């Protein structure tokens, strides 16, 4: 039985990946930094709470990491743990760098010392392209990170590549574009939107307040993306791969489509900070923009070219934009109905 250690087990990707690896017959260890029982909701929703062995491990503490690796001696490590919210990285840049950059180095150093033949997956990100140098972005597009989060992830990416080249370790980096799901955290714009719309529909909230509506993202469906991570570690040689849909949409389009699925028809007025989304039927303002949700430096456009993953891994994204919004919107409508029945 192969042993996999997933850091960030209580996050969106950690939960989906755990489910996939359990289905493949792995013994799955989930590294958790002790965030309390409420953090279990994703594993519960997927019905795998009892099947994963939770082990306490924080990327901030080297001795803790060493004990965990010595104890498990994993065949594969998927490093998904991160302070993953770009907005917060401007408020907590040092903590973000300690977890997202140096935390990865702590893990790699430990593996080099204790279990160098472990296959290692690093969760790299399209945020590294930032102020994009090329459209669409490929594995060869230069990075131009625009936040403390993205800068930390560039370090993590290159240190993983360096351990591959310097020590011949199997380190694969997945440069994943945004991937969402019904298990996405509420702080991210997609889930913030679908959850708020479900509450508006139930009369629990008046409006949705967002930041920049004009940035564009390449959004895919998370369960498909964790399959790509798994494939990267099943190859003979380690490499870096983009996972993306190859389509891009504005935040405004996501919001409009989600309202439509929930039965509202939104009409836009104004631009930038003065934008408003108005319900055509009632004339009520349902969407407003606040400076509070703008970032000091923004990533305006992301669109990935997933050709290499398609050719070498046989991976592709099948859930397109409309379907993704529908899955997320319907899940939140059901959730709110259940909660307030
Ligand atoms: P997520 O839902 O925010 O999950 C991240 C997990 O990391 C959380 O469970 C968090 O624990 C844990 N964590 C944070 N700090 C930690 C620390 N010091 N030690 C140990 N664990 C810690 O993120 P996700 O969306 O699943 O993303 C997974 C990974 O892929 C992240 O590294 C993210 O940066 C990267 N990524 C995500 C996307 C995307 O679109 N989702 C795209 C590209 C790359 P708590 O539950 O205790 O907070
Ligand atoms: O949903 P977001 O917070 O995701 P972002 O910044 O693209 O980061 C996510 O994807 C990355 C991959 O590219 C991951 F590496 C990262 O860990 C994370 O999963 O914001 C998306 C866009 C931004 O342009 C933001 O300015 O939506 C805009 N936005 C507008 N109003 C908002 C809001 N974002 C959030 N979170 N909240 C708002 O109210």
Automatic annotation (TrEMBL):
Q: Where is the NAD(P)-binding domain?
A: 5-328
Q: Per UniProt, which keywords does this protein have? A: Lyase, NADP
Catalyzed reactions per annotation: GDP-alpha-D-mannose = GDP-4-dehydro-alpha-D-rhamnose + H2O
Coiled-coil annotated spans: none
Q: Which SUPFAM superfamilies match?
A: NAD(P)-binding Rossmann-fold domains (SSF51735)
Record's HAMAP family? GDP_Man_dehydratase
- Gene Ontology molecular functions: GDP-mannose 4,6-dehydratase activity; NADP+ binding
| Protein name (Swiss-Prot/TrEMBL) | GDP-mannose 4,6-dehydratase
The UniProt entry, under NCBIfam families, shows: gmd (TIGR01472)
**Cited function:** Catalyzes the conversion of GDP-D-mannose to GDP-4-dehydro-6-deoxy-D-mannose.
Checking InterPro entries in the record gives: GDP_Man_deHydtase, NAD(P)-bd_dom, NAD(P)-bd_dom_sf
Q: Which family does it belong to?
A: Belongs to the NAD(P)-dependent epimerase/dehydratase family. GDP-mannose 4,6-dehydratase subfamily.
Q: Which domain of life is it from?
A: Bacteria
List its EC numbers. Answer: 4.2.1.47
What cofactor does its activity depend on?
A: NADP(+)
Under the heading Pfam families, the entry gives: GDP_Man_Dehyd
Please give a single GO biological process term from the UniProt record: 'de novo' GDP-L-fucose biosynthetic process
